[in-house]
Write a structure and sequence with these properties.
alpha+beta; 1 helix; 49% strand
Length: 145
């Protein structure tokens, strides 16, 4: 086998390993969420350096007449043991409009960089709790890369 052929074979092997390893380290979880006040999501393992959340079709249910919107916050916590969870800097802050308001559901996303591998929890917080109101998203994507 010539030097050029060896070089091509070795290059193809290296590129294949890099492509496969990139797929191995990318986790994606999908879910839905509905929270009245504060809700801790499930602890999940991520192996990438960035952790992201994307919430589609976010809306407010159970709103009293005349209520148009409520604000909410999503935080990302590195899973420790109960009180030893570590909050990553930054949070997702957005709005949810009441179903009856005539506004369309909104989407929101946030990426936390330099998170590192490990188990993480998303904490969902309704910034103003009233009556039976719930903030809901029918399609939540949590991922890392």
């Amino acid at each position: 086998m010539s030097s050029l052929n060896r070089f091509i074979v070795v290059t193809l092997i290296i590129v294949s390993v890099l492509l496969i390893s990139g797929q191995v380290f990318a986790e994606t979880y999908t879910s839905n969420v509905s929270f009245h006040s504060t809700f801790y999501g499930t602890s999940r393992t991520y192996n990438g350096n960035q952790i992201s959340i994307s919430m589609s079709d976010v809306y407010l249910t159970g709103a009293a007449p005349g209520v148009i919107k409520r604000y909410y916050t999503v935080k990302c916590l590195k899973d420790g043991f109960w009180i030893f969870d570590t909050e990553l800097p930054g949070s997702l802050k957005s709005v949810a409009y009441a179903e009856e308001s005539g506004y369309l559901p909104v989407s929101a996303s946030k990426t936390w960089t330099m998170a590192g591998s490990g188990s993480y929890i998303f904490l969902f917080i309704n910034d103003y709790v009233y009556g039976n109101e719930c903030i809901r998203s029918d399609y939540v994507v949590m991922s890392s890369n």
